[in-house]
Amino acid sequence: MSDASADSLIPYDEIVQEALRAVVGRVLGEVERGGVLPGNHHFYITFKTGAAGVDIPAHLIQRFPDEMTIVIQNRFWDLKVEEEQFSVGLSFNQVPAKLVIPFAAVTGFVDPAVNFALQFQAQAEEGEPESTNTAGNDAPAAVSVEDGSNVVSVDFTRKK
Question: How far apart are CA 160 and CA 61, in angstroms?
Answer without folding.
Answer: 38
